[in-house]
């Protein structure tokens, strides 16, 4: 029997759950919460097992301890504040004695998500519920533990029922498989703005990358512990969390993982196509592919990273991809970018600036550069800057 899309959404949500709206920012879910009486707006990160990481300019009480945080490549310590009261919209959250918010030095994360954000909210606050993340309706649904979707039969075309792997206790670990049957253990991570992220040594283990091989295009990724060399890789005909995925472009960290429990994460670039229900106790995930897509068409880029420096009130090039269009055009690290396509770079904004760095294959962007006080104009043609695997199994 054919089930219309609108009806399918309502069937997904049948329970006595409480619905709480969120905002879908640039490559992220952003939700409001009230922590110790203080309202905060946070990116929701299923890859973070704790409760909150908040900017230290948000006063939610006195710090009484510390916690070590780990990202893709390293770890760092930060102070913690006990959480006494917590609610997310209309949903009150139980606060165990050991629940605490990490206070991390730094400014607002609003620029990263193109909407107001004070920090990160993790899975600890959701542990008493069967959590539905309904991206189609832009809301959480906090289902009671009695809500059991695990007896549903998926069609394995639009809907998928996936078992969490018995590996790792701080994340939602699921399996991804290549055409040759090689597997990666990857976390379901709404906090990863990329499509998916893994490591060079993982690719070597499953035969998609030859040991010692250098990428044709090397770039830089920024993670919580700092900048790290990274590159993009086009992979084909995977099964990501049981979902057939014809083509996708992955971010590859050019160093080993900081943890042996998993091989990386599948991020918002993939997950934004799905409504998800997560049952941590029954260890199941329901995926509803409401967009009918598993990836966007690949974008071409210019091959440079630039950062805004308030002391100079300028965007400054911090790295240039070897062999990429920007390098071929003559742009160098340290150049100040004053204009893009005839517009003042400062008037475009952070997100607009990032969008200018990508576009259709062979499209161009005009950059006005200041190098040691001398103005220069460059026209840069965008190109695909992703690498190909060593094995056709990707």
SSE topology sketch:
Layout (H helix, E strand, L loop, with lengths): L4 H8 L5 E4 L1 E3 L2 E8 L2 E7 L7 E4 L9 E6 L4 E8 L3 E3 L2 E2 L7 E5 L5 H4 L5 E3 L8 E5 L4 E5 L15 E5 L9 E5 L5 E6 L7 E4 H6 L13 E5 L2 E15 L2 E11 L10 E3 L1 H4 L3 E5 L4 E5 L11 E2 L2 E6 L4 E7 L4 H5 L6 E5 L2 E2 H12 L1 E2 L4 E8 L2 E8 L4 E2 L7
Parallel strand pairs: 4-11, 5-10, 16-21, 17-20, 19-32
Antiparallel strand pairs: 1-13, 2-3, 3-4, 3-8, 5-11, 6-7, 7-10, 8-9, 12-13, 12-22, 14-23, 15-16, 15-19, 17-21, 18-19, 19-20, 22-23, 24-29, 25-26, 26-27, 27-28, 27-30, 30-31
Q: How would you characterize the overall build of this protein?
A:
This protein is mainly beta. It has 6 helices and 32 strands. Strands 2, 3, 4, 5, 6, 7, 8, 9, 10 and 11 form a 10-stranded mixed sheet that branches. The chain starts with a helix and ends in a 7-residue tail after the last strand. Mean pLDDT is 89; it is low at 1-13.
Short description:
The protein has 394 residues and is mainly β. The chain has six helices and 32 strands.
Q: Helix fraction?
A: under 10%
Question: Largest sheet, described in full?
Answer: 10 strands, mixed
Name the CATH superfamily assignment of the largest domain. Acid Proteases
Kindly estimate the percentage of residues that lie in beta strands according to DSSP: 35-45%
Determine the structural class based on helices, strands and strand pairing. Answer: mainly beta
Mean pLDDT: 89
At CATH level 2, the architecture of the largest domain is Beta Barrel
In total, the number of strands is: 32
